[in-house]
């Protein structure tokens, strides 16, 4: 229930939080399983949230195991279709729990479901594909060995900036991994290598490789031009949106920078805005009723999201 309710809200809110979302193969959004999406991981849990919102069917995502340490968090994560995966850095004693996670994934596959796994293992805010771990290959091979007709689709997430509210997101999907070629290899070790060879070859085409100091390349690859007529038309509501939302945005940005000045900054800030925005709208409505007639106060409440959208459309796409 929590998953469905948040997804309904998020599908509306994404129009504010993301300026532009582009998927090269829209048919993926209507795909049925069993399906494993094998992705890079540049932007913490925001990668999974965006894909969850876009897909028609429920999506199960693998997340770092230390986020499940508290019992209450574990229950919430389960409601949100998140499954823990543990790395050596989170304690060798926890690695055995990955078998339970793989079993849970395989049960999702048997129900023709979809799982998202981040094949690099960890999150780093960069336009670069890092070395792939073997977890994706092991999950796929073990599923095939159990007779599950699993398809594995490489997926590349690309963003315009990692500390810039109002994202341009470019999601690139590839062709299914060639299962037959993997299983022709004589040993499991060679099968793992062949799987990762195929996966890396595709991800290298799907993940943008950009020097962060090369603004010309950034503008060419991750900026979306805005026509002059649209910039002129949106200027007044964009200015109103910037003023009305500054009391929410800038304190949260400062707080997030103070507590999460790392690769999770972007996702944490977006999550805070996502969760607190409805309450901020209610607060603004309550304050507006003090000085304005009820009808005008209600208009402010209704128009504020549209003003926020206009602000996002006109803001600098490459600034931090």
UniProtKB/TrEMBL annotation:
Protein origin, superkingdom: Bacteria
InterPro entries cross-referenced by the UniProt entry: GPAT/DAPAT, Plipid/glycerol_acylTrfase
This protein's record includes keyword Membrane: yes
Domain (Phospholipid/glycerol acyltransferase): residue spans on this chain: 35-160
Keyword Membrane set for record: yes
Residues spanning the membrane: 228-250, 279-308
Keywords: Membrane, Transmembrane, Transmembrane helix
Official protein name in the record: Phospholipid/glycerol acyltransferase domain-containing protein
Biological source species: Flaviaesturariibacter amylovorans
